[in-house]
Amino acid sequence: DLEENKKWLKEIEEEATALRETIAKLEDEMGIVPEASGSEDSNKSRDEVDARSIYVGNVNYSCKPEDVVQHFKTCGTVNRVTILTDDGGYSKGYAYLEFLEHNAVEKALELNGSEFHGRQLMVNKKRTNIPGISHFHVQPWIPPYPYDKHCYG
Questions:
Q1: Which of 59, 101, 110, 139 could form a disulfide with 76 if both were Cys (CB 3.0 to 4.6 A apart)?
Q2: Could you list the residue ranges forming a coiled coil in this record (predicted)?
Q3: Residue 115 included in any domain
Q4: What are the pLDDT digits (tens) for 16-65?
Q5: Overall number of domains in the chain
Q6: Global model pTM greater than 0.90
Q7: Residue range of the domain that includes 12
């Protein structure tokens, strides 16, 4: 029984090692650099990237990242565009842009209210999310009354 458990544990460890190698290979092929979660360096890096990034709201649902780059190219070099989508792959109507230059953010903020594909864009600095902190207060669920509170019986 103990030998079976040891054998089973060894198989799981081998599978985990194989999965880690596969993930590392895929990250290497895709050019993804894994971040050390919770490290101070990664937090500084994220803050630095957020300082060069903007939020763009009211983006037309049919827009492609190339269209957004074209609209903001006068501000500076766009490093990355992320148009958020729902589970079905449809645009949620907002995007995030990361510039290579810090001064590009200030120029991009001047495009707040500009028209883009028939819509008036909302351009703001990207805010840094702090894990575990929400921007709204969630009301606790209160169960319904088991009877009509206005009736007496």
A1: 101
A2: 2-29
A3: yes
A4: 999 988 888 877 776 665 555 555 666 778 888 999 999 999 999 999 99
A5: 2
A6: no
A7: 1-33
